[in-house]
Design a protein that fits this description.
Elements: E1 2-11, E2 14-25, E3 30-33, H1 38-41, H2 43-53, E4 62-68, H3 80-90, E5 102-104, E6 107-108, E7 114-115, H4 120-129, E8 134-138, H5 142-145, E9 152-156, H6 159-166, H7 179-186, H8 201-213, E10 217-220, H9 227-231, H10 243-255, E11 271-272, H11 280-284, E12 285-286, E13 291-292, H12 294-297, E14 302-305, H13 313-317, H14 320-325, E15 327-331, E16 336-340, E17 344-349, H15 370-375, H16 380-383, E18 388-391, H17 397-400, H18 409-426, H19 441-447, H20 452-464, H21 471-485, H22 493-500
Parallel strand pairs: 3-4, 5-8, 8-9, 10-17, 10-18, 11-14, 14-17
Antiparallel strand pairs: 1-2, 2-4, 6-7, 12-13, 15-16
Helix pairs in contact: 2-3, 8-18, 8-21, 20-22, 21-22
């Protein structure tokens, strides 16, 4: 008897429909075709054990299984459940009239219990698009898939539940999630707050500007000056997730297996802080079977690179294109996948190998030229993509011991959200541009042109401070954001002056 069961293959962050054709006939062979990987070929043993332990008969017949389309490689053990259902249906052990209405995925353990899978949200979206009535998957992933409206999601814990469902001996209860209520209740919960940071008001202001315009920022300062502490608090001042951003970010983390089980949606922006020993593949994604890298896991959030010069040169250089294009394409001989990578880069570094160059109290003990050599570990093209460069000095004792509370993240966030709202209205007709950091050179002349007084100030600053030519566009972008924070239509000289002050590393005399 020939039956068809439906599953899915995840490619990138999207899913593709897989048709599993099972035919039972006279013979004793078991054949599995359609470009399955090793873990799928091993499903035979798991299925046999799961059925026998639960008193279900594995057919003693020739079983031929084809996974279509055959040119797409199928990976992972989540095909165990649809394969088992197909075998039982083809042998006549369960009814087949409801199989065409449901998409089925899940990994079987030897006792028949069903284990979690990756990419449940992407699969649910695809199932809805293909007109399926329902989706059967492990209970641990049910809330994630139930985010998709218009399809019934059934979480199952054991193969007995699935067999009873298709045999109409048992009804399953669909998982329902009030996504609007859950999303709004949880999206403002953060573990860190800027009120815990003493002093460093100028750096907090620079981080506020960076958050308001989506600008990349680098902080340069001695050990213990608070660089990492402030970077960890950046998600608390970024605008809350929109529902569309939450769905896209959840897809990525689900495919990568980094999302918490029994969670419906990610409600807070991701904060990724990879160690400086990370490889270039782990940073941008890839591998024999491509997976999202750190830059994609930081999509719609913050990527924090502490001790930036200590990262491998290759790791830093492969980030240049994603910083510009806000996506990464992983190409292989037979296919290519795209992962989104629209993140805010927050970097931190010591000013020199010993850490005390330009320190107000401690003396730098580095050899002549060591400071410039240390800075040169970061290439000019990468620095060119960092809009704000701020130098940090240690917090004085009177600030550390001050018991008065500092400004809370919620207060900063309100100003950031207001500025982002101005930018969204400004760019509503421009596809792919949502904040000032995304503006092209052509858009700068339209939205960020200073008046004659501002141009004179900018010219004087570039000549006296020996600013590089690449700083010009960055200063205009940042000054536009500062003007938005002030709710000003025009860029004022004061806005330009503040933006110029955020280009520390462009000054030729900085490393001397």
């Amino acid at each position: 008897m020939l039956v068809k069961v439906f599953g899915a293959a995840v490619q990138g962050i999207n899913a593709t429909l897989i048709t599993i054709e099972v035919n039972c006939s006279r013979g004793i062979r078991f054949l599995l075709v359609g470009l399955p990987d090793t873990s799928i070929k091993e499903s035979h043993e798991r299925i046999v054990s799961a059925l026998e332990v639960n008193g279900l008969k594995f057919p003693r017949q020739q079983i031929v299984i084809n996974m279509s389309p055959a040119d797409i490689r199928k990976e992972g053990s989540a095909y165990d459940l649809p394969l088992a259902v197909g075998i039982l249906a083809a042998s006549g052990s369960i009814r087949t009239h409801k199989l065409n209405d449901f998409l089925i995925m899940g990994e079987l353990s030897l006792d028949g219990s069903i284990l979690p899978l990756r990419g449940a949200l992407s699969i649910a979206v695809m199932a809805k698009e293909n007109g399926f009535k329902g989706f059967l998957l492990p209970s641990a992933n049910a809330r994630e898939a139930a985010v998709v409206e218009g399809i019934e999601v059934y979480g199952v814990n054991h193969i007995r539940d699935v067999v009873a469902f298709f045999s109409e001996e048992h009804r399953l209860k669909a998982t329902v999630v009030d996504i609007q209520r859950e999303f709004l209740d949880l999206r403002s919960s953060f573990g860190y707050d800027f009120s815990e940071v003493k002093g460093q008001e100028n750096v907090k202001r620079a981080l506020e500007v960076a958050a308001a315009g989506g600008h990349n920022i680098i902080m340069v300062g001695p050990p213990g000056s608070g660089k990492s502490m402030m970077a960890k608090r950046m998600p608390s001042v970024l605008p809350p997730f929109t529902l569309e951003e939450a769905l896209e970010t959840t897809k990525i983390h689900s495919v990568a297996g980094r999302k918490e089980l029994n969670q419906s949606l990610m409600t807070t922006r991701p904060f990724r802080a990879p160690h400086h020993t990370i490889s270039d593949i782990a940073m941008v994604g890839g591998g024999s079977y491509p997976q999202p890298g750190e830059i994609s896991l930081a999509h719609n959030g913050v990527l924090f690179l502490d001790e930036l010069p200590e990262f491998s040169r290759n790791v830093l250089e492969v980030m240049r294109q994603p910083l510009e294009d806000r996506k990464i394409t992983i190409s292989r001989a037979r296919f290519s996948v795209d992962y989104p990578a629209s993140f805010m880069l927050v970097a931190a570094m010591n000013p020199c190998p010993c850490g005390y160059h330009n320190h107000p109290e401690k003396m730098c003990v580095c050899a002549p030229g060591a400071v410039q050599k240390y800075l040169n570990r970061i290439s000019g093209p990468l620095l060119d993509r960092i809009d704000i460069q701020i130098e940090i000095v240690p917090v004085p004792f009177d600030k550390i011991s001050d018991s008065n509370p500092a400004e809370q993240s919620a207060d900063i966030s309100r100003r950031v959200v207001r500025a982002r709202g101005i930018q969204l209205r400004r760019f509503k007709k421009v596809k792919g541009v949502y904040c000032n950091a995304h503006m092209s050179s052509k858009m700068l002349y339209k939205y960020a042109s200073p008046d004659e007084t501002g141009l004179k100030l900018l010219k004087t600053a570039m000549e006296r401070l020996c600013l590089s030519a690449r700083a010009y566009n960055r200063i205009l972008k940042v000054s536009r954001t500062i003007a938005d924070l002030d709710e000003s239509d025009m860029i004022q000289p004061a806005h330009l002056a503040e933006a110029i002050n955020y280009r520390n590393l462009d000054r030729e005399s900085w490393a001397r």
